[in-house]
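Following up on my earlier thread - several people asked me to post the actual chain instead of describing it. Fair enough. Here it is, all 257 residues.
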Amino acid sequence: MLLLDDLHFLAKKRATQEEFLHTFNALLDDGRQVAVSCDCHPRLNDEFMPELLDRLLGGAIWGLLPPDAVTRQELLRAKSRPRRHVETDARGHRDSDIPEPVLEFLAANLRGNVRELEGALHGVRHFSRVTGRAIDVALAREALGELLRHAVRVVHTADVEAAVCGTLRLPAGALQGRDRSWAVSHPRMLAVYLCRKHTAASYGEISKHFGGRSHSTAVAAEKTVRQWLQQNQALAIGGREWPVRELLERIEHALMK
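Reply from S.P.:
Thanks for posting it. Predicted structure:
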């Protein structure tokens, strides 16, 4: 089996893509499996060769979602076990077990990736050492106060819709209608892009929410917004010109309030 991370690094390397495609085909012809990761859906990367894109689309495609609460707790439990071969750190301090109530508290309040979860454990342990206090929920809350205050809250498609409509002063429900005018279709595209960035919703779920007929509608909208950002474009919405990057930042600020 071939496992390849960050396939998008090959985006502008056509010769390397061709070699990878030959390897890809040879492995598949031999009954092998190939699994790759990429920073976006293959259709959203315009630099992939058409032949490679077809090969990628011929396989199963899944988005990598943030871990849910149960998975976060399992990750924290695994990362909290003292290391087998390193009994103490450089100052002679032993790693201590993290009590289960503390792991449950962290899993419920942190929604970042594995590195952030592991960093939280290190922060709790270090705070316990320098204060000389036992690890409990109160200590964890104190040690990670800043991180907990900035923990990413769960965002839903409806939250993104409300933030876009509020920022651009559109009536509620406007983005779910069939209006194809730029005054509505462009904000709808921005909403789709932000849904992919901030929610766990699939293309199909996002497309359905905004009145699309298939997931391809959402894929095309996200691709368009990515192109706007790359080209530093501006949009005329609500009687004024909005640089796309600035507009997205305003909407995200409203979304995170």
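The chain has three domains: 2-57, 69-149, 157-255. That should answer part of your original question.
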